[in-house]
């Protein structure tokens, strides 16, 4: 297949995904006083003030989940893209954050397509099912942005599949980074679900016990700066 055709196909599909999410988000014109939008809008307000004032928001005047310990709330976002808050409005940042995580998920699906040499048709099905299934769309629709770590799952799945094939010498490093990124995104649910998956995987693939145990150990170790404050707080 010509390289130009492949790039055009990927570009059109990626652009379509960006357009659909922008449309679903009403191009940023969201009622941030409804559902969980108001909560995550408030989280980002704290972060924006902290970034602009070069301060760490250890304790805040407003109470979230019955605590003033902002760093003890595991669903808050500390992904590197929060630096965009230094020059974007909170509304603009929320849309940008969703599109960035979508792009990461698209990249993960693209890596799966390349690894398994999926046809265009199969990749379109994968793209639609992964990005626009009812679960993730309904969560984002009501502003539950702590599920954005969902978009890292293709990378984790590919990492495990290549381990099974014996082609992944960087499994521990890659898995630790992916799981740590979930914690940075405030996706504690996705992080725990992924750990449960890896533990269950060990039971059915005992030959991978050592390497998967190392990945679990390091991912939890890297995430302690978020897990310990949450455990102390709640």
Descriptors for this entry?
234 residues, single chain, two-stranded antiparallel ribbon, mainly alpha
Structure, described:
The chain is mainly alpha-helical and about 230 residues long. The chain has ten helices and two strands. Helix 7 (about 170-185) packs parallel to helix 9 (about 210-220). The longest helix is centred in the middle third of the chain and has 27 residues, at about 90-115. The radius of gyration is 19 Å and the shape is globular. The model has no long low-confidence stretch (mean pLDDT about 95).
Short description:
This protein is mainly alpha-helical.
Give the secondary structure arrangement, pairings included:
Layout: H1 3-24, H2 37-53, E1 59-64, E2 67-69, H3 90-116, H4 120-131, H5 134-141, H6 153-164, H7 171-184, H8 188-204, H9 209-222, H10 224-233
Antiparallel strand pairs: 1-2
Helix pairs in contact: 1-3, 3-4, 3-6, 6-7, 7-8, 7-9, 8-9
């Amino acid at each position: 297949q010509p390289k130009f055709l492949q790039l055009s196909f990927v570009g059109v599909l990626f652009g379509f995904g960006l357009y659909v999410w922008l449309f679903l988000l009403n191009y940023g014109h969201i009622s941030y006083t409804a559902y969980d939008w108001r909560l995550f809008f408030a989280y980002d307000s704290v972060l924006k003030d902290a970034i602009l004032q070069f301060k760490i928001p250890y304790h805040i005047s407003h109470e979230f989940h019955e605590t003033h310990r902002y760093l003890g709330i595991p669903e808050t976002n500390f992904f590197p893209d929060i630096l965009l808050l230094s020059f974007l409005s909170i509304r603009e940042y929320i849309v940008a954050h969703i599109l960035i995580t979508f792009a990461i998920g698209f990249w993960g699906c693209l890596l799966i397509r390349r690894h398994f040499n999926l046809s265009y048709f199969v990749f379109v099905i994968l793209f639609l099912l992964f990005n626009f299934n009812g679960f993730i769309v309904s969560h984002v629709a009501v502003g539950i942005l702590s599920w954005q770590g969902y978009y890292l799952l293709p990378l984790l799945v590919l990492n495990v599949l290549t381990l099974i094939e014996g082609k992944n010498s960087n499994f521990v490093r890659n898995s630790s980074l992916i799981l740590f990124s979930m914690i940075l995104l405030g996706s504690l649910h996705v992080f725990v679900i992924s750990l449960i998956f890896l533990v269950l995987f060990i039971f059915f693939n005992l030959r991978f016990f050592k390497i998967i145990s190392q990945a679990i150990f390091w991912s939890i170790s890297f995430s302690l700066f978020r897990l310990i404050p949450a455990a102390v707080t709640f």
